[in-house]
Q: What sequence folds into this?
């Protein structure tokens, strides 16, 4: 049993490595451009030349924003090309199952999405501190940023809200990615394959509507909240929110988790049993 488990892990690691190398052919080029732009920005700062400051700052900010969209493009493009395009037949002959093929894509491009978002936040913070003239005052700048979302009476509440906000963002990105993968896979069954692009869009729209309605219904009938109260306390409430404070809904996380698991296994099943690779 242990030997078999080690072989499965070894195959998965090789698959992850190959998917990472495939994704690393283009995406890192944008990071190199951004690093160069930030270098120009700091050169302008040290040399006191506003021209280089402006050019470096604007380019680094625009590239960091563009990276989010570029990364998501490759989330879709590589999945379509490597599994349902000309490389599809080769991919499905690899000694791995459909769950591993799908899981590898989600892990690799999920990490790229995290990196791209973190990069955007860091560059935005750098440009904000430059504009405000508060270099090095990270705590003050973080406080200004967080007050945009709410005035919390304790550091624990601020940290809780920040974790909630980040987790909600990445949970949404993951759900969105899995819905895209499910839509593309389903559009490649024999009945839809001739117009797979149109069908993938229609299926995604229907899936997204179900996703939105599902969260709304869950929130309506199953209320679970983390309440950040004005007296600095934090507690979990079920049903209606009666406490004075900010309520963070937990039901969307539950729904997204259930949906992600269902769509993951559905997509893996379609990849294994239903798709038509020609």
A:
């Amino acid at each position: 049993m242990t030997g078999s488990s080690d072989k499965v892990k070894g195959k998965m690691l090789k698959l992850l490595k190959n998917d990472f190398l495939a994704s690393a052919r283009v995406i890192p080029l944008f990071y190199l451009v951004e690093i160069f732009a930030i270098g120009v920005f700091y050169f302008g700062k040290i040399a006191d030349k506003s021209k280089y400051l402006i050019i470096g700052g604007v380019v680094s900010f625009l590239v960091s924003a563009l990276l989010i969209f570029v990364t998501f493009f490759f989330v879709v493009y590589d999945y379509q090309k490597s599994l349902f395009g000309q490389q599809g037949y080769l991919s499905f002959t690899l000694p791995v199952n459909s769950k591993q093929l799908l899981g590898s894509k989600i892990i690799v491009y999920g990490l790229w999405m995290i990196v791209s978002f973190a990069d955007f936040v860091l560059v935005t913070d750098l440009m904000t501190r430059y504009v405000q003239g508060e270099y090095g005052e990270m705590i003050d700048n973080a406080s200004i940023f967080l007050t945009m979302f709410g005035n919390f009476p304790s550091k624990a509440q601020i940290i809780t809200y920040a974790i909630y906000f980040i987790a909600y963002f990445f949970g949404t990105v993951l759900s969105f990615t899995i819905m895209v993968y499910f839509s593309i896979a389903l559009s490649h069954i024999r009945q839809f394959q001739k117009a797979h692009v149109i069908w993938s869009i229609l299926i995604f729209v229907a899936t997204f509507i179900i996703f939105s309605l599902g969260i709304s219904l869950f929130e309506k009938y199953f209320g679970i909240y983390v309440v950040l109260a004005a007296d600095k306390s934090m507690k979990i409430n079920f049903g209606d929110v009666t406490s004075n404070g900010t309520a963070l809904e937990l039901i969307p996380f539950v729904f997204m988790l259930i949906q992600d698991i269902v769509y993951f296994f559905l997509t893996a099943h379609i990849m294994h049993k239903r798709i038509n690779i020609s």
Observations:
- The mean pLDDT is 79.
